[in-house]
Amino acid sequence: MRHVKAFSQKKLVEDFYSDKKIMSAVCHGPAGLLQATDQDGNSILKDKKITGFTNNEESIVGLTKVVPFSLENRMKELGGKFEKGQDFKPFVVSDGQLITGQNPKSSFLAAEKVVEILGKV
After folding, report:
1. Which class in CATH covers the domain with range 2-120?
2. At a CB cut-off of 8 Å and minimum separation 6, what does 80 contact?
3. Considering 58, 72, 83, 112, which one is annotated as catalytic?
4. Is 116 a catalytic residue?
5. Which of 14, 28, 77, 83 is catalytic?
6. Which of 3, 14, 27, 83 is catalytic?
7. How far apart are CA 10 and CA 19, in angstroms?
8. 27 is catalytic
């Protein structure tokens, strides 16, 4: 059953991406974007400016041995241009339809960015 849900999430993200819909994720949320690919089979994160919970933040909260993988490393491995701000400070990156926030304190900034982009549509 888990495999079916993962496939559905992957397809949903891919459909949103191909339809050029705004997608936003904060902290560990960008993990939901990792499996999605574009029409050419490339990661939707490839060559995109992105952010998420950083390796250093993960280390500070003592979760490096708890989480199954490093989000920062995985996003870089997929070709994402990972950016980061100060640890536990609000930081948001926007690249086209993708808006990502570094940590929970980035939620408000990410929401503001979504509203800003939607106002231009």
Report:
1. alpha beta
2. 43, 45, 46, 47, 48, 49, 50
3. 58
4. no
5. 28
6. 27
7. 14
8. yes
Alpha-carbon gap, residue 110 to 101, rounded angstroms: 6
pLDDT tens for the chain, residues 1 to 121: 455 555 588 999 999 999 999 999 999 999 999 999 999 999 999 999 999 999 999 999 998 888 899 999 999 999 999 999 999 999 999 999 999 999 999 999 999 999 999 988 6
Q: What is the DSSP string of 23-92?
A: EEEETTGGGGGTT-B-TTS-BTTTT-EE--S-HHHHHHTT-TTTSSS-HHHHHHHTT-EE---STTS--E
How much is the pTM?
A: 0.89
d(CA 37, CA 48): 13
Domain ranges of the chain: 2-120
